[in-house]
Specification:
- The radius of gyration is 21 Å and the shape is elongated.
- The strands form 3 sheets. Strands 4, 5, 6, 7, 8, 9, 10 and 12 form an 8-stranded mixed β-sheet that branches.
- By secondary structure, the protein is an alpha/beta fold.
- The chain has 7 helices and 16 strands.
- The chain has 2 domains: 2-164, Nucleoside Triphosphate Pyrophosphohydrolase, CATH 3.90.79; 168-308, Rossmann fold.
Length: 315
């Protein structure tokens, strides 16, 4: 692998000094890939208009083809943050206009490209805001392959298209997860619940969940490339933990349900609601009785260990 700086006329950031990530990675076999630390792009999905595509300017890599707003990752930048930032720079995507659903990662070892599939929650008009775009258009799903596509996007589109209709959801049995670690949680049940929720929120706001962790392959869907998921997430609280009042959530995708009675009953009701709304739903619990009820309701079930292995350490 070789690192080469960009030549004149090649991609660069529209504002400020060039980042160290703005460089070509040259594979042992000679192919060039943009981004010293990898690259990322945003596949914004609008339920009415389709997906947002960018017509690349002629002087860019594979100029004249349609692809996603995206580009090189900055040093230390997550793929999710890079995809959103690049979409803002190249297509004027407003803050909070999209919410991530999944991330597909094409990883060569020496270079990677992450495609973040995100749902539009606040409709917006794309704006050409840097010289790398000739046009930006919302393209119906069935019309994407009618256009000349960037080879990388063309190769990935069939797999991405199959995932676009899938809506992932996760329901967390907070009492079971918190109670699975003997760290003194019983001394402060409200605080333990709050810490769990914020740790879950950190994952949803950065790397996403890996459905193949701890032997749960294809929890929501399968792909030829590794997937990370940003599911609609519900944390169900029961007992003393219900008294939590002003938790400071780091990601609004976390929904808190305070069970008025049995926590298991509230979890099953939430599963039924989500499945009726078309979500592919998974439940986190190590309780055998709840597992049986959740599976009977149509959910898949993973253990507390699956979740805990993916959460950041408690502060």
């Amino acid at each position: 692998m070789t690192i080469l700086p960009p030549a004149a006329g090649e991609p660069r950031r529209p504002d400020g000094p060039r980042d160290s990530g703005d460089a070509w990675v040259v594979a042992p076999t000679g192919e060039r890939y943009w981004g010293r630390y990898g690259a990322a792009g945003l596949l914004a999905v609008d339920a009415e208009r389709g997906v947002l595509l960018q017509l690349r300017v002629g002087w860019s890599h594979f100029g004249g083809t349609w692809a996603l707003p995206g580009g090189a990752r900055n040093e230390g930048e997550s793929a999710l943050d890079a995809a959103v930032r690049e979409a803002q720079e190249e297509a004027g995507v407003p803050d909070q206009a999209v919410i991530p659903r999944l991330m597909s990662v094409f990883d060569l070892g020496y270079w990677s490209y992450a495609t973040v599939v995100a749902d539009v929650r606040v409709p917006f008009e794309a704006v050409i805001s840097d010289p790398e775009s000739v046009a930006l258009e919302w393209v119906p799903l069935d019309a994407v392959t009618d256009r000349p596509l960037h080879p990388g996007f063309a190769a990935a589109w069939e797999g991405l298209r199959a995932l676009i209709g899938l809506k992932p959801a996760l329901v967390i049995d907070a009492a079971n997860v918190v109670g699975s670690v003997p760290n003194g949680w019983w001394k402060d049940r409200v605080g333990a619940a709050e810490r769990l929720i914020n740790r879950v929120a950190q994952v949803l706001g950065s790397v996403g969940f890996d459905d193949e962790a701890s032997g749960a392959p294809g929890l929501w869907g399968t792909s030829a490339t590794p997937l990370k998921w940003f599911p609609e997430t519900t944390v169900v609280l029961e007992g003393a933990a219900r008294e939590m009042q002003n938790v400071s959530l780091e990601n609004s995708a976390v929904h808190v349900v305070r069970a008025p009675g049995s926590g298991d009953d509230a979890i099953v009701e939430e599963v039924q609601r989500l499945i009726a709304a078309g979500y592919a739903t998974a439940v986190v619990t190590s309780d055998r009785a709840l597992r049986a009820r959740a599976e009977s309701a149509g959910a898949r079930v993973v253990s507390a260990r699956w979740l805990l292995q993916q959460l950041p350490d408690e502060a």
